[in-house]
Amino acid sequence: MKVGIIGLGLIGGSLALDLQALGHRVWGSSRRPETIHTALESGVIEAYFPIGSEIPQDTDLVIICTPIDGIIPTLAQIVAYLPPSTMVTDVGSVKSPIVTPGRALWHNFVGSHPMAGNNHSGIKWAQQNLFQGRPCAVIGKAGETLTDRIGELWRSVGMEVYFCEAEDHDRAVAWVSHLPVMVSAALNLACVQEQNIPVRILGEKLASSGFADTSRVGGGNPELGRMMAQSNRAALLYAIDRYQEVLAEIKEQIALEAWHELEALLQNAHHLRQSYCN
Ligand code: NAP
Description:
The chain is an alpha/beta fold. It has helices spanning 10-21, 33-41, 68-78, 96-105, 145-156, 166-191, 197-206, 209-215, 222-231, 233-255, 259-276; strands at residues 2-6, 25-29, 47-48, 61-64, 87-90, 109-114, 135-139, 160-164.
């Protein structure tokens, strides 16, 4: 296939590398000239075409990998130049604000969300196999030609594909992606509330794998975190409220020295985690 990738950061750059390794011809576009230069120099893409001008007429698929608020404006800029058969998808972490206008702008548009990443951003972090073994949401039903073809794309880079509706996707990721970012960010911010400076510094020295696990997603791309919250506000607020209720229950059990109840609650947490991380 000939594939165009717009937005050559962590996700777009990594996808370009994987697709080229699979033998696809990949052209790209991005916002800053230095990013395009790096992408061409390092072989992340084989050609560059500016957004809002002619693109190769044999392009089978365009994947929009810009920040969330750039996805629909980018699609609006390219539709006049797309061959009618070209498929378009995006990778935005929120789907409801994207798929309805996306479909209105382009008949061959299907939203995606590859659930892969790390706490880096930008082309210099692009890496092969970022998507391997991770889940990916494709918005729509299995059995429809376009959604099936987009599903095949993500399977080809090693992802497990789940078809769903945009609203269900956004509610689900509020729990498993957006809430963890905010909780983890709160942890990072809370630690520095320690007023005794030598103790705080000792904490920094003693922080090990447990802290690394729980603080990682809160230390990621701040622009991405802000856009997740902005575009999935209601679902995220609902999840934060429920989280605060559970945290208040834990706090109360500690305050009341209800150790038996606390252990039972932690036992339940131990079992429930296996449904999410197996
Ligand atoms: P990123 O590393 O910051 O990459 C985004 C790139 O888009 C930037 O490098 C920027 O390139 C380019 N860009 C920004 N505005 C643009 C525009 N108007 N037109 C063209 N290019 C533009 O971010 P990312 O983590 O790859 O995230 C990209 C998308 O993936 C987001 O929609 C996000 O929701 C989604 N996503 C992220 C993750 C994750 O964990 N990181 C996971 C799943 C999905 P320049 O250098 O040219 O400015």
